[in-house]
Write a structure and sequence with these properties.
With 664 residues, the protein is α+β, with helices and mostly antiparallel strands. The chain is built from 14 helices and 35 strands. The protein is globular, with a radius of gyration of 25 Å.
Length: 664
């Protein structure tokens, strides 16, 4: 991480305003190059200062990232810090007052011989002065910790101590059990404001900067503690056993935030089989709940919408089918309607605001279009475009991901999305198909812009993304149906979806490939093991190959029993099932062309998973596979260079087996 001493260049200014790369319009070129899809958003992490005078953001160019500011009314941005993303990367950015910025930086490292990530907190003035490249290292000189926290950028919000302070969760006494401190960002002084009595992993503060809620677990018992406004006594809000699903349905809560007056807590909880939003009275000894909003089809898993000008929560945004916003405040709804009229046929989200709510940043996107950032000055009514996140795709007419419903062999209804090839209008009949299972597996594909899907569709292949059982978003019962069913019913759902696409005349049965990352990589491997007749080829990106080895690695981390063991199985007790459903043990059965890609710096899925799979294929005498290892690649392929290399290799591989020709 280094401070940039050169003055901002014209290139940086042009990039800020999206002028450097001329957006390609339909007809200029048939297929955009891989780089267009692999590059990082041109700029991200935008945030307005509380007084609305300065914009801070992260600018990305040629694999490097530049932390920058721009004063309203000026034309030249100031570059504060930069990184080449080889080791350090910026992960968060926020204001502490109107003049000072806090940036979270992450880097790979080892603790007690276990590979993981560390994070540190950087403080710098908006003009680039008073840089402190490791803020807590300075703080620790005054207060030496018994345990040096692994993560040092977990900011809860503002502190009641004043505008120059923030609340920070730090496990300085006991690893993985943080206390809460007020950190003065100018003097680097820490003051403990909430102590961990044992078992608390996460904290939440109210809008006034008072710590009000703690959550965690002991063994498998989940616990939530809360205190009423002005009360120093902690009370138990709820407890439940993580693997007792009746208790989970009846008692589980996911806190979202405190309302402006601090009395009411918003939280997600079960309502008729779906996760809904409730309002809980923390001053009532009975903790009375009021249902705020529910969706009969989808879990609510999004965020509350806070209005700085109204000083209250005004609605909720969540995934739904294509992204939904629900308002319970009419004035906030009216403002949203005005924005939507100015930017029609888009999902427009206010994601940063000045303290008075008069300066707003808006992300405008669509399921078939990347985001564009706008700056709205409400007093003048002026809205100006700041930047297209992906300029070369901004004017492209890309296909919409179409919702599909599929009935599996046992009658379970599956939901997903089908993206048509870009050239679909010029073709008739079945087309080559890519099956693209998501990672997680407790996750879901949504109707939003997806660079993977659009990259594949741009090459003339349809893309099918199915939320198999075990996916989140469709109720606890559907999610839990995937627990400890890896390679079984979860895989059958994908098989049934492929057969559905053939029956519907969508897919050419001789040109279907399966691609996935993480759990999706596991599904790709199991697909060519269980149903090799369905797939022409497969790609595993940072995928799972050995379930018992995965569990053995997971035991090094906190929460193993309520996480990996509950979802995958017991390392010893379920050893035979785990062996049978581990691709590494079936290498001899694989006869489908296979591409393995893995990042050496992957801290989520150890690179040994793909190395062992490649070794097993070699030992079995297989030749129709290739293993590509990316020396600096992480789990998300965050570095632009890694994404370009992986996407290029994947494109070449898929062309060979879906189009029977090498790309030009």
């Amino acid at each position: 991480m280094n401070k940039t001493l050169l003055r901002p260049t014209l290139t940086a200014l042009m990039l800020l305003h999206g002028l450097l790369v001329q957006a390609a319009t339909p007809g200029q070129e048939d297929v955009p190059p891989v780089r267009v899809f692999a590059e990082q958003p041109r700029a991200q992490m935008f945030v307005i200062s509380p007084d609305g005078a300065t914009l801070a953001y992260l600018l990305n160019k040629d694999g490097s990232s530049y932390l920058s500011t721009l004063v309203l009314g000026e034309q030249t941005p100031t570059v504060l810090l930069s990184t080449d993303n080889q080791k350090y990367s910026f992960r968060s950015l926020r204001w502490a007052g109107n003049q000072r910025l806090l940036a979270g930086a992450r880097y790979p490292d080892y603790r007690y011989g276990v590979a993981g990530y560390e994070s540190r907190l950087i403080a710098v003035d908006a003009n680039g002065g008073n840089l402190n490249a490791n803020l807590l290292d300075s703080a620790f000189r005054f207060q030496r910790p018994r345990n040096v926290p692994q993560f040092q950028d977990r900011i809860l919000g503002k502190s009641a101590a004043g505008p120059d302070s923030v609340l920070l969760a730090l496990d300085m006494e006991r690893a993985a059990q943080p206390d809460v401190y007020s950190l003065d960002v100018k003097t680097a002084q820490l003051t403990r404001v909430a102590s961990n009595t044992g078992g608390i992993r996460q904290w939440m503060a109210d809008r006034d900067g008072e710590v009000r809620l703690g959550s965690g677990w002991r063994d498998k018992e989940m616990q939530l503690f809360v205190r009423a406004p002005g009360d120093k006594t902690w009370k138990t809000l709820s407890t439940w056993v993580a693997d007792d699903y009746a208790q989970v349905a009846a008692r589980a809560l996911k806190p979202v935030g405190f309302d402006a007056d601090g009395r009411y807590l918003y939280a997600f909880a079960d309502h008729q089989g779906r996760q809904a939003l409730y309002r809980i009275d923390t001053a009532d000894p009975a903790f009375t709940r009021t249902l705020v909003h529910d969706d009969p089809q989808f879990d609510l898993t999004g965020q509350l919408i806070w209005s700085d000008w109204l000083k209250q929560y005004v609605g909720i945004s969540y995934a739904g089918q294509y992204g939904r916003r629900v308002y319970w405040n009419e004035r906030a709804r009216a403002l949203q309607d005005e924005i939507d009229r100015a930017l029609p046929e888009k999902t427009n989200t206010v994601f940063s605001s000045s303290e008075d709510g008069l300066s707003l940043l808006i992300a405008s996107t669509a399921p078939n279009a990347p985001s564009t950032i706008y700056w709205l000055e409400r007093k003048s009514g002026k809205m100006r475009k700041i930047i297209d996140s992906h300029p070369a795709l901004a004017e492209r007419q890309m296909p919409m991901p179409r919702p599909v419903s599929i009935t599996s062999r046992d009658g379970t209804v599956l939901h997903g999305y089908l993206t048509a090839p870009w050239n679909r209008a010029a073709t008739t009949g079945p087309t080559p198909l890519i099956v693209l299972p998501h990672g997680g597996p407790i996750s879901r594909d949504r109707g939003q812009f997806d660079v993977y899907a659009q990259l594949l569709a741009s090459r003339g292949w349809a893309v099918l993304q199915v939320n198999f059982r075990g996916s989140s978003g469709y109720g606890a019962e559907f999610e839990q149906a995937g627990f400890q069913r890896w390679g079984m019913e979860m895989q059958d759902d994908l098989t049934d979806s492929v057969r559905w696409s053939i029956e519907q005349g969508i897919a050419d049965p001789h040109k279907i490939c399966i691609i996935g990352g993480s759990y999706g990589g596991y599904a790709a491997l199991m697909g060519i093991i269980k149903t090799p007749e369905l797939y022409r080829c497969a790609v595993s990106l940072n995928g799972v190959a050995d379930l018992r080895d995965l569990l053995a690695n997971a035991q090094h981390f906190d929460g193993y029993e309520i996480g990996a063991e509950r979802i995958i199985g017991r390392w010893w007790g379920d050893r035979e099932r785990l062996r049978q459903t581990s691709p590494v043990n079936h290498a001899a059965d694989i006869r489908t062309p296979l591409l393995l890609i893995h990042g050496k710096q992957d801290r989520t899925m150890p690179v040994a998973q793909s190395r062992d799979m490649a070794d097993a294929l070699k030992a079995a005498g297989k030749r129709d596979y290739r293993y590509l290892e990316l020396p600096l690649g992480d789990h998300q392929l965050s570095r632009e260079e890694d994404r370009i290399e992986a996407f290029t290799e994947m494109e070449r591989f898929l062309h060979r087996y879906l189009d029977q020709s090498e790309p030009n």
